[in-house]
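Sample 1 of the test manifest.
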Amino acid sequence: MTPQASTPAYRRLSVEERRSQLLDAALSLFAHRAPEEVSLDDVAEAAGVSRPLVYRYFPGGKQQLYEAALRSAADELRHCFDEPHEGPRLPRLSRALDRYLAFVDQHGAGFSALLQGGSVVETSRTTAIVDGVRRAAAEHILSHLGVAGPGPRLRMTVRMWITAVEAASLIWLDEDEQPPVDELRDWLVEQFVAGLEVTARRDAQTEELVRELAADL
Amino acid sequence: MTPQASTPAYRRLSVEERRSQLLDAALSLFAHRAPEEVSLDDVAEAAGVSRPLVYRYFPGGKQQLYEAALRSAADELRHCFDEPHEGPRLPRLSRALDRYLAFVDQHGAGFSALLQGGSVVETSRTTAIVDGVRRAAAEHILSHLGVAGPGPRLRMTVRMWITAVEAASLIWLDEDEQPPVDELRDWLVEQFVAGLEVTARRDAQTEELVRELAADL
């Protein structure tokens, strides 16, 4: 039985709807398998459409689909940081982390493959997408911290923490999501504050920020 | 003028010497350019030998040479942790960091390309090599800490710190090696201790370790 016959594939979707349907199908496959183990046939089957249709939307084939799926995941990740610039700052960070960890949980293996690279379709372009998310996260956090003109030491501290959060997420997935997500989130926030406190010993701007964060709560 | 004519290339070297000469040449090229921008011709020229000779040693071409250079760099990185298991523990970590940062300084762009991936010759095999160094670093640190049977929270803390150190090294290279290496090293050690202190609030094993480290100095 061909997938087309078994699913309501050819109902009329707008181009945008169809595209996003295919990306969702691809993302859910990448969530469980490494990108090199996913074929366009698999995507067609998961979306319940024909292979030529997948090619029509992604004429560049697997590489193009992978990049589009990556971009779509990157957009979703960026949305984790959509948070009003008001109220105490560390709870804002906690809420962003909750959304981020929900994303990690939802995309599991696909998230790991994405961050760890090592895929045959990995290129400098895909690396740039992942790196763009990291940079966006750093800018978001710095803007939420409300520091005007963050200096190199503060920036380095924030960027180190972001990398450490990624590493922790990968380990967390490896270890069957232990500790529980709430504990992981609180621990990550505490790691953030501790990192700032160390930097504060050498950097007046960070010292001022740490004082503000303590008063903020 | 061909490179062969200009250099004492064809003096007799043992197979091992020749191999290591070619790897050194490759590493120094990778140190200044991304792997995809280095050709076998470049390596032959840098080593002052003919291109066929490079092929004789690395019949798999560029991919094989890149992996061999990566392995050689990985071995060098592992040696950073060669440190007697005696004396106070944090100073041992400082000395390992000094060697690691000297490696980062020496290999510059090659080190960045290596860690950041995004190379066309990046494969799951090269990723595994880099990941192997990270794991070895974690095991070394845990063994130096002298904790019998380190639990998941302590392991996660150490692995997060290793990733954070990598991120800091890349930023440090980007920022013309600011702050000075001694300051960076001390700051990284302090970040390590601060990370352990946060984990100690939830983990008895890490709490005990933090107490020991404080008494150690």
